[in-house]
Amino acid sequence: MAGSTCIQGWTGPTRRRPQPLSLTSRSDAADLVVQGKGKFEELMVCSHEIAASTAQLVAASKVKADKDSANLSKLQQASRGVNQATAGVVASTKSGKSQIEEKDSMDFSSMTLTQIKRQEMDSQVRVLELENQLQKERQKLGELRKKHYELAGVAEGWEEDGKRPVGTRLGAAGSPQLGVRWMPV
């Protein structure tokens, strides 16, 4: 599958308001998995992104709203529902994946000693290749996250090096407030 069908709800921890969420991205990922064209892991990532975006929305709302606000209580209750639903999707996805993998397990009973040894060696090579690929992908993910937060900071008025101008802080309306020192990101 080319590219992710999951969209982010927020561009970073400093955003004041979320970008629109799309539950259709998760259903698109689910449709592709059912058709055999998608990946189970992508569906799980989409579910986690939705839950994370919802949690960020609640956290931002707690800062802005009165703690006794009825709307905040409704939002928190809805957030719990989203978390339960996404947890259910992830659990179902893992279960479905394991059931499919069980069907694909190999039968070694008809193989000779030489064939089994060859399969073992091929499997060891594949494990080493995958471990190397995993290490590279983790490094790439770290760099992507770093760049994402840098860009989100610049969009919020931070300097290019990831620091806010010394003595300034963005207020509720996005205007600088003087006299507050910020640490680098």
TrEMBL record:
UniProt xrefs under InterPro entries: I/LWEQ_dom_sf (IPR035964), ILWEQ_dom (IPR002558), Sla2_fam (IPR030224)
One cellular component (GO) term of this entry: clathrin-coated vesicle
GO MF entry, a single one: phosphatidylinositol-3,5-bisphosphate binding
GO biological process terms held by the UniProt record: actin filament organization; clathrin coat assembly; endocytosis
Assigned keywords, A-Z: Coiled coil, Cytoplasm
Subcellular location: Cytoplasm
Residue span(s) of domain I/LWEQ: 1-152
Gene3D superfamilies in the cross-refs: I/LWEQ domain
SUPFAM superfamilies the record matches: I/LWEQ domain (SSF109885)
SMART domains on file: ILWEQ
Protein name per Swiss-Prot or TrEMBL: I/LWEQ domain-containing protein
Organism: Dromaius novaehollandiae
